[in-house]
Amino acid sequence: MKAVFDLLPKGIVHAIQSLPIASQFTIEEIRIRIERPLEVIAGGRSYICPHVVQMGEGIELLNKLSQYSLYTIEEELKKGYITIQGGHRVGLAGKVIVEDGKVKAIRHITSFNIRMARQQIGMAVPLLPYLYDGRWLNTMIIGAPQTGKTTLLRDIARIVSSGVTDRRIAPQKVGIVDERSEIAGCVKGIPQFTFGYRVDVLDACPKAEGMMMMIRSMSPDVLIVDEIGSEADCTAILEAVHAGVGLFMTAHGRHMADVVKRPALRPIMEQAIFERFVELTNVGRPGTIQAIRDSHGRDIYRKMGVM
Amino acid sequence: MKWIGAICIILATTWSGFEASRLLRERTKQLRQLKMALQSLEAEIMYGHTPLMDASLRLSQQLSRPLSWLFESFAHKLQKGTMNARQAWEESLHEVWKMTALKEGEFEIMKQFGETLGQYDHEIQQNYIRLTMVHLEREEGDAMEKQQRYERMMKSLGVLTGILIVLLLI
Q1: pLDDT at A175
Q2: Predicted confidence (pLDDT) per residue in B70-127, tens digit
Q3: Which residue range or ranges hold the AAA+ ATPase domain (chain A) (predicted)?
Q4: Cis (ω within 30 of 0) for the bond into A50?
Q5: By the 8 A CB rule, do A136 and A276 touch?
Q6: I need a surface site. Which of A30, A56, A151, B17 has the fewest CB within 10 A?
Q7: What are phi and psi of A246, to 5 degrees?
Q8: pTM for the predicted model, two decimal places
Q9: Beta bridge partners of A82
Q10: pLDDT (tens digit, 9 = 90+) per residue, A115-169?
Q11: Extended beta strands in chain A, E state
Q12: Do the chains contact at A70 and B51, CB–CB below 8 Å?
């Protein structure tokens, strides 16, 4: 929280602190829109502050995000978000400058969305009996945005790298290919979350290439990748599986059926590479498990849960 | 008694003559250093993608005084985070300028340079640095010419003025 408050202009910090929120730690998003009131989303509810954000405050925030050097965040401006200390992410919107049909940068930034990253240590522990069977099973986590896919993936990475003594799961080497700097939330290459000792992160690296780089050079036991979707990703996944590396990845969708239908992912599905599909939903609260399916699509969540 | 006074006068004027010529010499030297500093800054920005604060701290270690103070004070002001890069740069310039041999022309160039600091992407930032270098080069040419023309003259002028005053007073 302090990392975020250090960045924000004083007026905005005051406005947030005077909100009737139980605890600052329930804040999920801080949305700053220039010349509009400040919005804070906490505990699933939206609060509108009376404080209207001024142009100057927006510029101050951007200056601090870039350490007064806009040229250092050129790449980030292209992608539309910046990862800050603590793994939090700041999404940006404004006037986009296009060159040769590609986004070159965002100028005149008018909306900032600060998404608070939260590590839920222990979130994946109840899933262990489904995901580990003498080795880590290739698993795909499926969920719509904001259902806690990445948070779950992060905790799995932590568990794999540190091992579980009660279940006699030995620690293993984990390679994270973090294209959007979301899983590890790296700042200058250093992960901002707790992961145990055996984690190597390729930060901001394109997934397909990154997975091959990892396999070739870092000899991971388990590879962790976020949001697969393209055909290039698919090829890399097939390579990785044949190299004997365990895979954990996420995909957008509501059910396993949605993922099966996606044309780019068909080769993986046909070869039945994934042995577990975890379906997440945010009904109730983010990170709720809807189903865990095996490679045939059978729901095994409750069945094994009874055992 | 008379002779002691005369020697004092001659010493004083000689010293001011030497000081004036030193200033002329220093100005060219400092201008050259400033150019070098900008070149390093360009490299830091273009190849290192270093934020201004780190870059200027590094520059302040490479340069000699008084120019190192300029970058040091700039970095400290940014670190405090109470003002933006333009303000921090301008204030540092005001603080340090009195201690340099540099003139008003260079001050204006550097001030304008400060307006562009950290506001743009690599390419534009580089263009501004280059532009500033061109301006500084012009000033350097001017400074060198003045140095050649007046450096020795200032020294002899100092001694001779002293002798003239002494002669008039005797």
Answers
A1: 92
A2: 889 888 888 887 778 888 888 888 888 888 888 888 888 888 888 888 778 888 888 9
A3: 135-279
A4: no
A5: no
A6: A56
A7: -70, 145
A8: 0.71
A9: A90
A10: 888 778 888 888 888 888 888 889 999 988 778 888 889 999 999 999 888 888 8
A11: 27-33, 37-42, 45-52, 81-83, 89-99, 102-115, 139-143, 174-178, 199-203, 222-225, 246-252, 276-281, 288-294
A12: no
Q: How far is B121 from chain A (nearest CA, A)?
A: 4
Token code pair at residue B88: 């921090």
Q: Which of residues 82-101 of B touch A (CB under 8 A)?
A: 84-85, 88
Helix axes B85-97, B67-80, angle to 10 degrees: 150
What is the predicted pLDDT for the residue at B164? 92
Give, for A266, the enclosing helix (H) or strand (E). helix A266-270
Spatial neighbors of A218 by CB under 8 A, at least 6 apart, are A173, A175, A200
**pLDDT for residue A22:** 65
Sites in chain A below the pLDDT cut of 50: 305-307
Domains of chain A: 2-115 (3.30.450), 125-306 (3.40.50.300)
Q: Which residues of A touch B78 (CB under 8 A)?
A: 67-68
Which ranges of chain B does DSSP label H, i.e. alpha helix?
Answer: 2-43, 52-62, 67-80, 85-97, 104-116, 122-169
- Residues with Cβ < 8 Å from A25, sequence gap 6 or more? A1
Of B49, B78, B125, the CB nearest to A68: B78
B50 touches chain A (CB under 8 A): yes
- For the cut 90, the answer to whether the pLDDT of residue B15 exceeds it is yes
Gyration radius from chain B CA atoms: 20
Residue A303: count other Cβ atoms within 10 Å of its Cβ. 10
From the list A159, A19, A22, the residue with the least C-alpha distance to A151 is A159
Task: Count residue pairs from A and B with Cβ separation < 8 A.
Answer: 47
CA angle B14, B18, B20 (to 5 degrees): 115
Closest alpha carbon to A288 in A276, A301, A275: A301
> ipTM, 2 decimals?
0.70
